[in-house]
């Protein structure tokens, strides 16, 4: 990469200092001067013109030399690029499951744009898609084309719903981040209290606690003012009642901190009142809860998948090269043949690999727990249980195969 | 857990796989631009030097009067001024292209300064990359307005090739409308490069013109056209040329193959696709949108058998705040991922200290207890299954061993 940069730097300097146009101008000047001389004194024409031959030729040579240098600069840069990308052609997609589903990809992009708050781009994109669909539909009489368009219309309707939801989310987040206004978020959390509670989420309390702290510290980051404390206390009286059963400890802490207001920073409550990342954390929790209630993941799946793809590509490319060299094909249809090293944050599900067969558990071959507490896959279990008895491969325990139970990870 | 499974090391060199077109394309453009400069200079040189010589000789031999000499000098001057104008334009273009390359190199260089995939900077970088990929995808499907808007909002104009694709799309659209003019003009501009291409775009375009002439029953013109444009290809395209000759005998209203399909309006779509293919090859652009390449790898790397399972996964679902929804399970990608293979794992990966509830669900002990504490209406000594919502006694949790 450094080489590429160096070569390009050189090329760039070359291009900037290029004198070709000056040379052309020089030629024009020469011609012009000759013309002037001749028009003044026509008898000088033969000599002037004769004298003109060489300088004009020279300036053309100069132009060509200049171009040659640029050309070699370009070539060097080409070589640097080739070197950087050597042995790394873009992997070809042999099993292209995506190109046949442009609608799904476009839908994913629309949802990604909405989720990122790019509402206007999403609108443009949707209208461009439907414009493109219409002529295609009228030109084609096949019935399934109509069906596709219908499905898409439903999609659009759905995405309208999602757009509304994300508009709400961005409004709340904007208020929260830019205006330090928690009220819309608290309002939303109250509306969805039941759903949030059954998820075991602390969102509403966290928002209210932050509101209390914010009031307590006063609006303009002043030292806790009297009015601020008063407001916080009033807020606690009116709003904390509902939290007492679940968050008694925390509420006590908050109210207890009142007593320490002169030297809060030295008090044990410091962590609650002086947490610089509190706002960011709350915003993050809010986004996550909001998306989860919609059944969506907190981070854009498109982003995660594309990034994971970029991480996985070198490995897959290597695999492709090896397979080509050895002329083998991979046999397992539904599974990649190699492990892709992804960072731990990219693991979402628990993975169960049967310790006996080394296969991943699936719906058809679920993990089974034997009475001793060891887990193996069902197929392995069937294979191991001969004559109605099953000996655990990991401990001396023996059991009946029917005592094994299906488990869910 | 295997060491490489948790690896967050970032190897920038191999990470740039997807970004080759980012540098290659402007470079191809720069080379093309350079060739144009060379061509115009060469043309003027070939005109000017002999012309000057001739004028000098004529003036020496006194076969031309001074007015004529002045006239031819004026002609030379104006041609040189034309050259200067052209070169100025081309140089402007050249600078623009190199400026773009510079910014792109800078962008890629940023990646080399990031050592870990867990770095916040990597996330920013990767987000820009995603935006680039989306713009690329939009452009390739002809959604240029959305692409332009997105590029502007994200301020990545320098990192995407709007003009190239918009132009390509324009020509392809003109072909779909049944016009060959713009496409042929493009062929003329890229004559030298097209010679190396294995696609015979120009021949196909000329053939189409020929077909159109026959369709409108201009048979004489069609024959002349064929002689002029098709016969030179007789070595490589003899089969097509024979067919083309046969076409003369079959008017469009007869349903005889292969002539019927030659008259078919579908041929225009074929030409448009052929053009796009040739165009991308010439600029060393990959034939598939980069987003597809990235996604199909990414979907597989992330997919697990649980993602399309009939049973809710205990470790990642939308029912509990302690888990995050897996991107493959999320609505956006779920259908898309249905047909890709899932990731290969050689080791089980479960939470620490797994316990099993009487309903067969497995959780990490600590997470389960923590979560039960937060949920309202779960009494002391009870745990709540975050997936099914059932409550059990703590004593019903049983330790489980996963190797």
TrEMBL record, chain A:
Domain CTLH: from-to ranges: 165-223
Alphabetical list of PROSITE patterns matching this protein: CTLH, ZF_RING_GID
GO terms for biological process, alphabetical: proteasome-mediated ubiquitin-dependent protein catabolic process
Main location: cytoplasm
Top-level taxon in the UniProt lineage: Eukaryota
Localization of this protein: Cytoplasm
Pfam families noted in UniProt: CTLH (PF10607), zf-RING_UBOX (PF13445)
Signal sequence region: none
Membrane-crossing segments per the record: none
One GO CC term on file: GID complex
The keyword Zinc appears for this protein: yes
Domain RING-Gid-type intervals: 354-395
Any one GO molecular-function label of the UniProt entry: ubiquitin protein ligase activity
Protein name: GID complex catalytic subunit 2
Organism of origin: Elaphomyces granulatus
TrEMBL record, chain B:
Domain CTLH: 164-221
InterPro entries, A to Z: CRA_dom, CTLH/CRA, CTLH_C, Fyv10_fam, LisH, ZF_RING_GID
Coiled coil: 73-103
GO biological process, one term: proteasome-mediated ubiquitin-dependent protein catabolic process
Pfam families reported in the protein's UniProt record: CTLH
Positions of the RING-Gid-type domain: 326-388
Subcellular location: Cytoplasm
Cellular compartments per GO CC: cytoplasm; GID complex; nucleus
Family under the similarity heading: Belongs to the FYV10 family.
Annotated protein name in UniProt: Protein FYV10
Species per Swiss-Prot/TrEMBL record: Elaphomyces granulatus
């Amino acid at each position: 990469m450094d080489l590429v940069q160096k070569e390009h730097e050189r090329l760039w300097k070359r291009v900037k200092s290029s004198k070709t146009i000056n040379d052309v101008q020089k030629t024009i000047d020469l011609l012009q001067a000759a013309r002037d001389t001749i028009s003044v004194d026509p008898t000088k024409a033969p000599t002037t013109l004769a004298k003109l031959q060489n300088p004009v030729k020279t300036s053309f040579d100069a132009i060509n030399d200049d171009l040659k240098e640029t050309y070699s600069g370009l070539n060097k840069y080409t070589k640097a690029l080739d070197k950087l990308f050597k042995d790394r052609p873009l992997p070809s997609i042999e099993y292209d499951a995506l190109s046949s589903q442009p609608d799904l990809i476009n839908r994913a992009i629309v949802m990604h744009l909405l989720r990122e708050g790019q509402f206007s781009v999403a609108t443009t994109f949707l209208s461009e898609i439907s414009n493109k669909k219409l002529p295609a539909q009228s030109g084609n009489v096949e019935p399934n084309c109509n069906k596709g368009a219908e499905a898409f219309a439903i999609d659009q309707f759905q995405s309208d719903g999602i757009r509304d939801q994300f508009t709400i989310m961005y409004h709340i987040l904007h208020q929260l981040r830019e205006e330090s206004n928690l009220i819309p978020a608290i309002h939303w959390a109250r509306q969805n209290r039941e759903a949030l509670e059954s998820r075991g989420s602390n969102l509403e309390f966290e928002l209210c606690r932050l509101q209390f702290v914010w009031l307590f510290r006063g609006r303009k980051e002043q030292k806790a003012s009297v009015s601020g404390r008063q407001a916080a206390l009033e807020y606690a009286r009116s709003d904390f009642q509902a939290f007492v059963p679940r968050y008694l400890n925390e509420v006590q802490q908050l109210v207890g901190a009142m007593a320490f207001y002169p030297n809060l920073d030295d008090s044990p409550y410091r962590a609650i009142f002086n947490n610089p990342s509190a706002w960011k954390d709350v915003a993050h929790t809010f986004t996550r809860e909001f998306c989860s209630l919609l059944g969506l993941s907190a981070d854009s799946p498109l982003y995660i998948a594309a990034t994971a793809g970029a991480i996985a590509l070198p490995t897959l490319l290597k695999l492709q090269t090896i397979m080509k060299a050895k002329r083998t094909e991979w046999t397992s249809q539904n599974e990649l043949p190699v492990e892709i090293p992804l960072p731990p944050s990219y693991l979402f599900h628990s993975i169960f690999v049967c310790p006996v067969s080394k296969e991943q558990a699936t719906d058809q071959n679920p993990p089974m727990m034997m009475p001793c507490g060891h887990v193996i896959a069902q197929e392995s279990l069937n294979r191991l249980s001969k004559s109605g008895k099953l000996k655990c491969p990991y401990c001396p325990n023996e059991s009946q195969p029917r005592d094994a139970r299906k488990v869910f990870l | 857990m295997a060491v490489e499974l948790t690896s967050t090391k970032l190897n920038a060199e191999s990470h740039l796989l997807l970004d080759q077109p980012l540098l290659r394309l402007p470079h191809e453009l720069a080379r093309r631009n350079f060739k144009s400069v060379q061509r115009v200079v060469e043309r003027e040189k070939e005109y000017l030097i002999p012309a000057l010589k001739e004028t000098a000789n004529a003036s020496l031999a006194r076969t031309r009067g001074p007015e004529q000499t002045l006239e031819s000098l004026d002609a030379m001057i104006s041609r040189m001024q034309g050259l200067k104008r052209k070169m100025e334009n081309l140089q402007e273009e050249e600078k623009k292209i190199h400026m773009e390359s510079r910014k792109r190199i800078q962008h890629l260089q940023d990646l080399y300064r990031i050592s870990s995939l867990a770095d916040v900077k990597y996330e920013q970088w990767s987000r820009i990359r995603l935006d680039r990929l989306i713009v690329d995808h939009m452009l390739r499907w002809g959604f240029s307005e959305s692409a332009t808007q997105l590029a502007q909002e994200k301020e990545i104009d320098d990192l995407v090739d709007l003009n190239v694709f918009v132009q390509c799309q324009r020509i392809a659209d003109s072909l779909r409308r049944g016009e060959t003019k713009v496409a042929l003009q493009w062929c003329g501009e890229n004559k030298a490069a097209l010679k190396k291409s294995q696609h015979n775009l120009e021949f196909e375009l000329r053939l189409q013109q020929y077909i159109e002439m026959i369709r409108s029953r201009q048979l004489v013109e069609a024959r002349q056209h064929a002689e002029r444009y098709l016969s030179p290809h007789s070595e490589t395209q003899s089969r097509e040329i024979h067919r083309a000759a046969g076409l003369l005998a079959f008017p469009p209203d007869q349903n005889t193959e292969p002539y019927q399909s030659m008259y078919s309006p579908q041929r225009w779509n074929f030409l448009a696709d052929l053009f796009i293919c040739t165009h991308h090859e010439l600029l060393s652009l990959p034939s598939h949108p980069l987003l597809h390449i990235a996604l199909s790898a990414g979907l597989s790397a992330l997919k697990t058998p649980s993602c399309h399972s009939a049973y809710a996964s205990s470790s990642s679902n939308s029912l509990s705040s302690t888990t995050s929804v897996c991107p493959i399970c999320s609505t956006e990608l779920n259908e898309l991922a249905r047909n890709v293979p899932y990731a290969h794992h050689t080791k089980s990966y479960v939470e620490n200290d797994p316990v099993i509830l009487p309903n067969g669900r497995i959780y990490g002990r600590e997470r389960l207890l923590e979560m039960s504490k937060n949920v309202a209406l779960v009494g002391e000594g009870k745990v709540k299954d975050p997936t099914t919502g059932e409550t059990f006694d703590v004593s019903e949790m049983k330790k489980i061993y996963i190797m």
